[in-house]
Specification:
- Its main location: other.
- Pfam families: AhpC-TSA.
- This protein has 5 helices and 9 strands.
- The protein is of the alpha+beta class.
- It has a single domain, classed as Glutaredoxin (3-Layer(aba) Sandwich).
- The strands form 2 sheets. A 7-stranded mixed beta sheet has the order 2-1-5-4-3-6-7, with helices on one face.
- A hairpin with a 4-residue loop joins strand 1 and strand 2 (42-44).
- The longest helix is centred in the N-terminal third of the chain and has 19 residues, at 2-20.
- It starts with a helix and ends with a helix.
- The relative contact order is 0.20.
Length: 174
């Protein structure tokens, strides 16, 4: 009985914690934004309407952000014809370009996004992965890829890109 109560408490606390570190939630419209990409082109929410968007928020000093990038690239490779893969980074254009010289990360990058990420989204945890439907409604919010322990293995291992696939496929099927 104690273990059931603990699990319920932990689940409730976990759900509250997830909501407490971001201002938006599943079912909300994604907030309007106007940010520049690495080529100085302005991208807005209106540019994305009518498309499913997988949005990753990150910064180059975030170890979990960097660790999940190879798996996010695999997700993009698999769904690139059906989904817009976009990143918003706290980093400047120059910092992001420098970072990309040594790290393969194939999303379109919106830079200098700190004011939007912190003041509008209220994001206090990174990485964050948000799936937005064709009507600009938030359909899924996750932290980075979780670390899991496979049966028979001693060490935790980061999940692969398929962690996001079920949510993405559900949204694409609508």
């Amino acid at each position: 009985m104690r273990s059931v109560i603990f699990i319920l408490f932990a689940s409730t606390f976990s759900l509250y914690a997830q909501r407490a570190d971001i201002n938006v939630k599943v079912g909300d419209p994604f907030p309007p934004f106007e940010l520049k990409n690495l080529n100085n082109k302005t991208i807005t929410l209106d540019d994305l309407k009518g498309k499913v968007v997988f949005l990753n928020t990150w910064f180059n000093g975030c170890k979990p952000c960097v660790e999940e990038m190879p798996e996010l690239n695999k997700l993009k490779d698999k769904y690139k014809d059906q989904v817009i893969f976009l990143s918003m980074t706290l980093d400047s254009k120059e910092e992001t370009k420098q970072f990309l010289k040594t790290h393969d990360y194939n999303f379109e990058h919106l830079v200098d996004a700190e004011p939007f990420l912190k003041n509008v989204l209220g994001s206090k945890a990174f990485p964050r992965n948000i799936i937005i439907d064709k009507n600009a409604i938030i359909r899924n919010i996750d932290y980075g890829l979780p670390h899991i322990k496979n049966p028979g293995e001693e060490e935790l291992k980061m999940a692969d890109y398929t962690f996001f696939e079920a949510s993405l496929l559900e949204i694409l099927s609508k």
